[in-house]
# Entry
Amino acid sequence: MGTLAFLSPRRWRRLGWFGLPILAEVAHSYYVYQSMEGAPLPDTLERLSNARRKVTKDPLDPLELVRVVDWFLHPIYGTSRCLPRAMILFCMLCRRGFDATVVYGVSTGREELDGHAWVLLSGEPLGESEDPRAKYVETYRYPMSGGRRTISNGL
# Structure
């Protein structure tokens, strides 16, 4: 199912009115992300991971959440949206009780510095067309194994 298929009337009928709170949650997570601009990254991630309201009933699986977030962010950022995408997905997955991890990395072997952010779920990249671990060296992850926040020595 493509990103735009999320907008199909048949899809919305299956979700019913539940689709509106999901979009509101994406918008709220985006607002939290924007309001934390300039704050240290660990503080922002701590705030996003400790979402007060937990979602108990949700008809969307994690890949469908990726599609909703992509649909929401595309008009704002176009294709350069990995950082807000990773942070919003991290927030939404934490609210649903998933053990998600946000990973930041930089590419090696290029003249220009290129970075990327992605979410791991069960140790695998979520919603990525290609495995970013093949192209990017991990520089930071939250939370670390054992719940500790540290910077990776991958460089």
In short: The chain is about 40% helix and 15% strand.
